[in-house]
Amino acid sequence: MSAARLTRDIWAGDGGEGAKYWLSVFTDLKNRGVDDVLMLVCDGLKGLPEAVETVWPRTIVQTCVVHLLRNSFRHAARQDWDKVAKALKPVYTAPSEAAATERFSEFQEAWGKKYPAVIRLWENAWAEFVPFLSFDVEIRKVICSTNAIESVNARIRKAVRARGHFPNEAAAMKRVYMAMMSLDPTGKGRKRWTMRWKAPLNAFQIAFEGRLTPAAN
After folding, report:
1. pLDDT tens track for 121-153
2. Distance of CA 109 to the CA centre of its chain
3. What is the 3-state secondary structure (H, E, C) of the chain?
4. 98-128, pLDDT tens digit by residue?
5. 99 burial class (0-12, 13-18, 19+ CB within 10 angstroms)?
6. What does the alpha-carbon distance between residue 19 and residue 4 come to, in Å, rounded to a whole number?
7. What is the mean pLDDT of the chain?
8. Cα(53)–Cα(49) distance, rounded to whole angstroms?
9. 175: exposed, middle or buried (Cβ count in 10 Å: 0-12, 13-18, 19+)
10. 130 and 61 in contact (C-beta within 8 Å)?
11. N or C: which end of the chain has fewer CB within 10 A?
């Protein structure tokens, strides 16, 4: 979320998404007027936290909680997914970091021997998971998942596969742009989402006092 304004851009990657790549993207955004970013929610992309800290030192990097859960299931047997999910819920719904630490210790005691890789996954992600716990419930609803972004990506992939082949990068970028614009051709969806954001924006105003300003239309 930018404290300066909202912006929509498309970058063509070269197959890598390391710190150097993300640094170029963030620097481009900053040079075009994004002076501050309150929070960046991601799913463990390599090099991204280091890059955002270089460009916007005050930005909070938050791990996507839904991705953390999905990755946990990769290390567990299918028959245990429901049990693992139920055992982890007290961790990410805890009222504070201290409470989450206690709940995670209980999870570790119950499942650590059977699934040590799940424990290691959460331990490695802990520093970028816990910011989530210090925010109001309205903010938690917004930053819990990157599913909205994934939905857009799915539409883009569908449009690209339907075309199959592109003569050059510009043609591919045009296809991606048209797919994104087709998501809300009338602008009604944007208005609905604006209404949904009123409560979270009020919570963000309090949590990041003095840094959040209305975005230009």
Report:
1. 999 999 889 988 988 888 888 777 666 677 777
2. 29
3. CECCCCCCCCCCCCCCCCHHHHHHHHHHHHHCCCCCECEEEECCCCCHHHHHHHHCCCCEEEECHHHHHHHHHHCCCHHHHHHHHHHHHHHHCCCCHHHHHHHHHHHHHHHCCCCHHHHHHHHHHHHHHHHHHHCCHHHHHHHCCCHHHHHHHHHHHHHHHHHCCCCCHHHHHHHHHHHHHCCCCCCHHHHHHHHHCHHHHHHHHHHCCCCCCCCCC
4. 999 999 999 999 999 999 999 999 999 998 8
5. middle
6. 24
7. 83
8. 6
9. middle
10. no
11. C
Q: Which one is predicted more confidently, 31 or 170?
A: 31
Copy the structure tokens of residue 145. 């998942």
CA dihedral over 121, 122, 123, 124, signed as positive or negative:
positive
* Amino acid at position 117, single letter: A
Two structure tokens written together for 201: 């924006």
Residue 9 structure tokens: 């851009």
Give the tokens for residue 175. 């296809």
pTM (two decimals): 0.72
| Identity of residue 196 | R
d(CA 22, CA 47): 7
Tell me the three-class secondary structure of 98-152, residue by residue: HHHHHHHHHHHHHHCCCCHHHHHHHHHHHHHHHHHHHCCHHHHHHHCCCHHHHHH
Structure token pair of residue 81: 């997914």
